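Q: Convert this sequence to C-alpha cells.
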Amino acid sequence: MTTNGRESEKRRSSSRQKAAAGDRVSAPEAMRSAVEQLAELLGRAPESVSALKPTEEGWEAEVEVEELERIPQTSSVMASYQVVLDPAGKLLAYERGRRYTRAQIDRGNSTSR
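A:
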C-alpha cells in the first residue's frame, strides 16, 4: 500500500468513527430506552434511573425496580439493575445488582457516627 493509500484509509477510518459517534443517542433518550427495554424483559415497570454514563461502547445505566410489593410500601423489595446499551440505545445486557427495602438508606463510605 502506498503512502497515499494509507492516508486515505486513515481518513476513511476517522470518518467512520465520527459517524458512529454521531449515531449516539442523547442522555434522555438513553434513559428512556433503558427503562422501556428493561420493563419489556422483566414484565415490571422500573421506577427510576439512578445513574447513567456514556462509555466507549455506548451507555451504562443503573435502574431501580420494585420486585416485591409489600404493605407498608416502605418494606417493598427493590432491586438495582445495571443495564448496558449500545450507542443507538439498544439493550445489550443487564444484571441485577443489589436488593434492598424501599426504606433502606445508603450510608456510603461515611465514617461519622
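Residues 11-19 have pLDDT under 50 and may be disordered.
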